[in-house]
Design a protein that fits this description.
The chain has 367 residues and is of the alpha+beta class. Helix content is 57%, strand content 13%. It is elongated and about 85 Å long.
Length: 367
């Protein structure tokens, strides 16, 4: 027989516990959470350890080498417990003058965990040379290489630190601007509300992508890579805070008429106390949902600007910088693995959307 739900137990839970239970019951949300945990822990915090090679490490003679497929069964049909890749060799086709790659089935390179590789500094502080996985001899290019013989997988892992952190930092700045100005606009009303709303309407009247491009193109080229990174982050935040401010304003307009807000007024509470104790905490669930759904737009914005050459610039690397080579149709046709960074963008955006949907459902007491 199907068990009946325990309503008594459900009623004994606090609203926060019920929201957390609803959040964890959403399978897509859990998938998104797992993907983002892997991305942020592995690619943002420990990229030097996870990547098989260094960011700028070149392999002579392996320009535009194709991806190597890990194998468990060799060409003779023998099964191996440890995955391996075959040695790759190249030669120039005299008819087409194109590089053709073949696999030497006589030489295998086992893939191992915790192997010694090139030297690096973890977080720029601690010298080390141990990599999460790799081969002790030969080369391992799971996603192929670029035109300079650099491992694409390693570069994508390093690029994740920039692209994913831009979304978080940009949304944090948007939350500060949007939550504060939206709360002030909704709480005070009158002339203050009119001025803030007209500013938001002016910003939202411009098409978002051309405005991003115009502001990014205005960044001086002599800026250092770190300065350009923060400039792009600020630009993405300044363009997108208006939507968050409007959402917070609508919530504050309803909250300021509630009994607890009126009671605080009657007891002589200051406006700052009412805003930070009664209004903002109640709107926080709405702010978190909107912020989570805004991060993908930040990632797409940075990727697009870098792809067009007006965002993040070398020597820093982002997903958009890696996909810049895909602008050449000939390179795209002959070496299609240069668009593999798109998969990282798609996965991260889907994961954030799954989590945003889960947070929205969890914050709804009637779901």
């Amino acid at each position: 027989m199907k068990e009946k739900p325990d309503f008594a137990d459900h009623k004994s839970l606090t609203p926060r516990q019920r929201a957390w239970r609803r959040f964890l019951s959403n399978r897509l949300t859990l998938v998104g959470l797992i993907i983002l945990l892997i991305f942020y822990v592995s690619f943002v915090i420990f990229p030097e350890f996870v990547a098989p090679y260094g960011l700028t490490e070149r392999h002579r003679g392996f320009s535009y080498a194709p991806p190597q497929l890990p194998r468990f069964v060799d060409d003779e049909g023998q099964f191996h417990l440890r995955p391996f890749v075959y040695r790759m060799t190249s030669e120039i086709n005299p008819a087409t003058f194109q590089t053709e790659w073949t696999y030497d089935t006589e030489e295998k390179y086992p893939i191992r965990f915790l192997v010694s590789g090139s030297d690096y500094k973890l977080w720029g502080l601690f010298p080390a040379n141990v990599r999460l996985f790799g081969v002790e001899e030969g080369q391992l290019f799971l996603f192929g290489t670029d035109n300079q013989g650099r491992d694409m997988l390693s570069r994508m892992i390093y690029a994740s630190r920039i692209s994913l952190s831009v979304g978080l930092v940009g949304v944090f700045l948007s939350i500060v601007l949007g939550a504060v100005l939206g709360t002030i606009s909704g709480y005070y009303g009158g002339m203050v509300d009119n001025v803030i709303q007209r500013i938001i309407e002016t910003l939202m009247a411009f098409p978002q992508i051309p405005l991003w491009m115009a502001l990014a193109a205005a960044v001086p080229p002599e800026f250092s890579p770190i300065a350009i990174y923060f400039a792009i982050t600020v630009i993405l935040s300044l363009v997108t805070w208006g939507g968050l401010a409007r959402g917070v304003r609508s919530k504050v307009l309803s909250y300021r008429e509630n009994e607890y807000t009126q009671a605080a007024h009657a007891m002589g509470a200051k406006d700052r106390h009412i805003i930070f104790v009664h209004l903002l905490p109640n709107a926080m669930s709405h702010i978190l949902v909107m912020a989570t759904l805004a991060i993908p737009n930040m990632i797409i914005g940075e990727t697009m600007l870098s792809f067009l050459g007006i965002g993040i610039r070398p020597p820093m690397t982002s997903w958009g910088v890696l996909m810049e080579e895909a602008q050449n149709v000939r390179v795209l046709l002959e070496h299609p693995w240069v668009v593999i960074p798109v998969s990282f963008v798609i996965l991260s955006i889907l994961a954030f959307n799954f989590i945003g949907d889960g947070l929205r459902d969890a914050a709804d007491p009637y779901s």
